[in-house]
Amino acid sequence: MGYRVVDTESVDSEPDRPCECRKLAGPGGLDEAAINRFRAEPGEQLPLAYHYHETQQEAFYVLDGTLVVETPNETYEVPADDLFVVDPESPQRAYNPADADSPVTVLAIGAPPADGDAVAYDPADE
């Protein structure tokens, strides 16, 4: 048996990200899923770029604020306590709009872990 409590504030934020990103899977001892906590101020995006994953399914649970997710066909507004799910090979870009009244905090879960499998997506290529 094994149990862990992770103080998420003690996990360093990832450098070179457009917003605060704390990768929690490693400190939590998770091998089969990625889990990240994002906090984006108005005007910041969550991922590094508009992208998709070849094998990973992602779920974004909004803790507070409103997350906006742009996809090739629609833009979604995801309020606090709602979950947005992205299937593999589905391009998306998640962000907090510049005109938002407050930051957005999101718990992002992805399985299987997909370090390095993000594929850049350019909507102009469609």
Features:
single chain; 126 residues; mainly beta; Jelly Rolls; five-stranded antiparallel sheet; 1 helix; globular; RmlC-like_jellyroll; RmlC_Cupin_sf
Describe the fold and architecture.
This protein is globular. The protein has one domain (8-125): Jelly Rolls (Sandwich), CATH 2.60.120.10. It has a 5-stranded antiparallel sheet with strand order 1-2-9-4-7. The longest helix is centred in the first third of the chain and has 4 residues, at 25-28. 3% of the residues lie in helices and 40% in strands. The protein is mainly beta and 126 residues long. The protein has one helix at residues 25-28, and strands spanning 20-23, 34-40, 51-53, 57-64, 66-70, 75-79, 83-86, 93-95, 104-111, 118-120.
- What would you call the shape? globular
Largest sheet: 5 strands, antiparallel
The number of domains is 1
Provide the low-confidence segments as ranges: none
Number of strands: 10
**Corresponding CATH architecture:** Sandwich
Q: Could you report the average pLDDT, rounded to the nearest whole number?
A: 93
Structural class: mainly beta
Helix content bin: under 10%
